Amino acid sequence: MRKLFVAVGGSLLLASPLANADIVGVGASVSYWDSETSGQAMTGNDVTDLENDLNLDSDSNTNATLYFEHPVPLLPNVRLNLTSIDQSGRGELSTGYGPISAGTPVVSDLELQQIDLTLYYEVLDNWVNLDLGLTARDLSSELTIKSVGGLNASKTEVDAVIPMGYAAARFDLPFTGLSVGGELNAIGYGGDSVYDVTAYGQYEISLLQLQLGYRQISVDYEDGDDQLDIDIDGPFVSAGLAF
């Protein structure tokens, strides 16, 4: 499956139009994402509901982005992004999961980390901005479920490096510092799929960029006997600097 992801992703990059920035540009941002998780985790034939059975709540989110754009022809621009999510909960299993029986009170912890390396080209660069490219996403996720006061525990892990098509568009309102935009990383093949969608409004003053928006990550991925089919979404605020 991973070889198929690589093949499809590589084709997307080769198909991207070649363009480049007029000057060197560097930017960085950090954001707070108020995210919620829904969906299911599976191990073997066992299934648990992350929202209704585990009652997962957000403990901490880390989101940071760094990009570098240049005027060198043919070479892509570079963007790095880190997303780290830690959620925990206390609930009761409606069905058995691994060695844990149905009706057992449990505590659980979900850790999900994404490290993205994106190579992209600027297709349009005026009041309408359009970037196209390819993202290599290092996805690591671990769900641990433990019975309360007992010794039984189950661990569900998904670990993969996934190429994804990348597109970003922004529409500037001239002379106002205001703009609206969106970003998409996506891939789907053979029943597995990963989508990461962001929509935002931005205000820019001097070097400072402030964003308010909404982000949704959908992961439906099988790794051996373990599978995650989850959605993580919610509003975010972001502050960054662009040089």
UniProtKB/TrEMBL annotation:
What keywords is this UniProt entry annotated with?
Signal
Q: Which InterPro entries match?
A: OMP_w_GlyGly (IPR026387)
Q: Where is the signal peptide?
A: 1-21
Domain of life of the source: Bacteria
**Which NCBIfam families does UniProt cross-reference here?**
OMP_w_GlyGly
UniProt protein name = Outer membrane protein
Q: Which organism is it from?
A: Marinobacter zhejiangensis
